[in-house]
User: Which sequence fits this backbone?
């Protein structure tokens, strides 16, 4: 039998219509919404305007998580990690523009910015990991990584909007490194090392809801007004007073990708500090909605398979008879 | 129907020696990678988690290997028995393409000793597109060799085994039509979680549909490509009459692909980006010209059955599909401050896998009854270019 265009189109149209329906099943009714903040979610509030760039947090992090200093200069005198890496969980980076004279100013200014995992409310890395090596704690919301489970496929690296998971490419038996909010310290009643040692309260630990209120208080206070700033934890009695900074009127992490548990405040726009402008709907929700539209309950693949089985059986029989 | 027979002939030729050398180089480099780590051989970084091996060996190579899948759909699902002679060579190429793609993943993943976690429910993360792709490709590698088993059994099997394999063949055939539908579409979805990191000209929710339709097109194109090369290399009669008919399918699928792709751009209000995205515009336009070219070349009856034009159209389609995947995974993917270009080691390893595939294919067609000694299907013989019949007859034996 000749391959007629009509027959082929019939089949192609049916197949593609089914596929198109599956791909287009993104109606709001069965769309996977963003995950919501766990009830006892904890996190960090990093206020760039308070940070003096002392890097005590970087040293404390190495101590708490047993990582070795990283060098980028020939003389290995200072710990000079340029960014987070397979050896470094957090760094403080510096923004500088023009004459670089004025702190927290976009033009002719400078500012500091912390880099570490933001502990997304709806993390892509957890959604994409094929072997459940990335997990989000249902109570605290901490995004953890378990090396014993990891196969090193690096899909989390590809998917993370913030370039957080870091792989040891230089080792034959590599591991992945990321901030786990010092969960081993939290388990024994301590707080994350970076918040513990921060002398100005630039890095503050606490429940995410309280951190959000604290962030709103700061951005809502007029610049220059004397304000109290707690150290270590958000409800601390250890406070210091100074004039309120001129903030960008946005808490980074309040909405980005459905929210993050590390929140950022800054005097310099976030996109200048390496934090991209992101929408509210998480990519994890987007991708899972599409995959669920196609594979939901495995109905479509099973139906397709049944059809294929029937046709293949019928047609191989015909071929046998021909031969 | 004509029977397939082993091609026979010498195993040591210029082609087999060169491919064997390239394979040996790859083996040495892979050993080096295992001892000194991924960083010693590749330019992978924490900004580019996927490199050439994922882009070529997984995305492109498995799409090139869709010939078996595409032909199985045509012959066994749409019941076009006349194309039966093209199934075996297509299946063989697919079996090699997929197996080597699967093998290269084992060297690409950093913690390969944990790879078995992929296949056990205890570790499964059902939201992971990677999990679906990995399980599907793993299973399909096995299915392909089962589908090919009757060919091996025809040489070494007992009549009882041969009969049993023939009777139950419809099961692996059906599975072999289901699995690529799933993982070829999911390979497209794989980049959706990367969101803004993939340029908006490529990032879209219809990625699974685009990836699947272009993969099926690549499957038919590789059948035309290989059919043409085998006819040329082994002095066999041109299969242009049969291949020309298959090319019709490519045209219609390609029109579907382009309508979905451009319709989606219009719908998402991204049409302006086609011209305003700098180097991305260039890649996008080259890609689309390559997709469009086969439709134009195959539009008329006269050109469709011309072996040369058919070959050019197939090559254009293969390049289009390959570039589309390369763009999606590497070129349109990017983070500020990061760059990636494959290292010599990465390239040599990928070349080695391709060489091993060619070497394996040659050995198999010489050893097993893969290629059919049929004459071109009737209907459009007047358009076909035939080799001298005497030459064809002697090489077929």
Assistant:
């Amino acid at each position: 039998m000749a391959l007629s265009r009509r027959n082929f189109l019939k089949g192609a149209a049916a197949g593609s219509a089914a596929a198109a329906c599956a791909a287009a099943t993104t109606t709001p009714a069965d769309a996977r919404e963003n995950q919501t903040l766990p009830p006892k979610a904890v996190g960090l509030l990093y206020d760039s305007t308070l940070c003096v760039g002392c890097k005590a947090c970087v040293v404390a992090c190495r101590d708490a998580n047993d990582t070795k200093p990283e060098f980028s200069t020939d003389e290995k005198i200072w710990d000079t990690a340029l960014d987070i890496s397979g050896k470094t969980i957090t760094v403080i980076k510096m923004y500088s523009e023009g004459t670089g004279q004025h702190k927290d100013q976009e033009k002719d200014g400078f500012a500091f910015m912390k880099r570490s995992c933001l502990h997304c409310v709806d993390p892509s890395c957890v959604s994409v990991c094929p072997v459940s090596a990335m997990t989000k704690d249902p109570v605290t919301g901490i995004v953890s990584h378990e090396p014993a489970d990891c196969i090193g496929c690096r899909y989390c690296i590809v998917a993370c909007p913030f370039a957080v998971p870091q792989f040891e490419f230089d080792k034959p038996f590599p591991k992945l490194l990321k901030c786990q909010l010092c969960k081993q310290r939290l388990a024994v009643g301590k707080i994350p090392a970076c918040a513990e040692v921060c002398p100005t309260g630039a890095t503050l630990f606490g429940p995410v809801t309280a951190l959000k209120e604290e962030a709103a208080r700061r951005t809502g206070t007029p610049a220059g007004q004397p304000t109290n700033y707690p150290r270590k934890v958000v409800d601390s009695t250890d406070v210091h007073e100074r004039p309120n900074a001129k903030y960008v009127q946005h808490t980074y992490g309040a909405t980005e990708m459905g929210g993050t548990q590390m929140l950022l405040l800054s005097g310099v726009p976030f996109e200048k500090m390496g934090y991209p402008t992101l929408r509210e709907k998480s990519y994890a929700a987007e991708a899972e909605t599409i995959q669920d539209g196609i594979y939901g309950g495995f109905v479509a693949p099973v139906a397709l398979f049944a059809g294929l089985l029937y046709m293949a059986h019928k047609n191989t029989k015909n071929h046998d008879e021909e031969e | 129907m004509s029977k397939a027979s082993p091609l026979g002939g010498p195993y040591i030729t210029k082609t087999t020696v060169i491919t064997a050398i390239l394979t040996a180089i790859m083996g040495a480099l892979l050993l080096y990678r295992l001892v000194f780590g991924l960083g010693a051989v590749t330019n992978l970084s924490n900004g580019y988690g996927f490199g050439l091996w994922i882009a070529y060996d997984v995305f492109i190579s498995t799409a090139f290997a869709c010939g078996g899948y595409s032909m199985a759909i045509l012959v066994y699902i749409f019941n076009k028995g006349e194309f039966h002679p093209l199934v075996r060579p297509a299946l063989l190429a697919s079996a090699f393409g997929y197996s080597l793609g699967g093998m290269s993943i084992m060297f690409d993943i950093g913690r390969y000793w944990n790879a078995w976690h992929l296949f056990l429910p205890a570790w499964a993360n059902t939201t992971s597109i990677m999990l679906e792709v990995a399980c599907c490709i793993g299973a399909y590698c096995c299915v392909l060799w089962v589908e090919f088993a009757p060919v091996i059994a025809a040489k070494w099997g007992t009549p009882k085994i041969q009969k049993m394999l023939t009777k139950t063949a419809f099961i692996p055939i059906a599975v072999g039509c289901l699995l690529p539908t799933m993982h070829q579409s999911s390979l497209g979805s794989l980049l959706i979680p990367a969101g803004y990191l993939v340029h908006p000209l490529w990032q879209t929710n219809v990625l699974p549909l685009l990836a699947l339709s272009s993969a099926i097109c690549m499957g038919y194109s590789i059948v035309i490509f290989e059919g043409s090369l085998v006819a040329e290399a082994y002095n066999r009669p041109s299969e242009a009459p049969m291949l020309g008919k298959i090319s019709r399918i490519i045209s219609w699928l390609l029109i579907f692909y382009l309508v979905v792709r451009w319709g989606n751009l219009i719908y998402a209000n991204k049409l302006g980006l086609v011209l305003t995205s700098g180097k991305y515009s260039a890649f996008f336009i080259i890609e689309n010209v390559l997709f469009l070219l086969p439709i134009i070349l195959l539009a008329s009856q006269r050109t469709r059955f011309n072996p040369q034009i058919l070959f050019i159209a197939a090559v254009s389609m293969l390049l289009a599909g390959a570039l589309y995947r390369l763009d999606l995974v590497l070129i349109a993917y990017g983070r500020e401050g990061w760059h990636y270009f494959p290292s010599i080691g990465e390239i040599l390893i990928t070349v080695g896998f391709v060489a091993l595939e060619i070497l394996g294919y040659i050995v198999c067609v010489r050893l097993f009854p893969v290629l059919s000694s049929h004459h071109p299907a009737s209907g459009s013989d007047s358009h076909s270019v035939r080799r001298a019949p005497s030459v064809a007859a002697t090489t077929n034996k």
Notes: Chain B has one domain: 52-338. The two ends of chain B are 17 Å apart (CA to CA). Chain B touches chain A through 85 residues (CB under 8 Å). Chain B is about 70% helix and 0% strand.
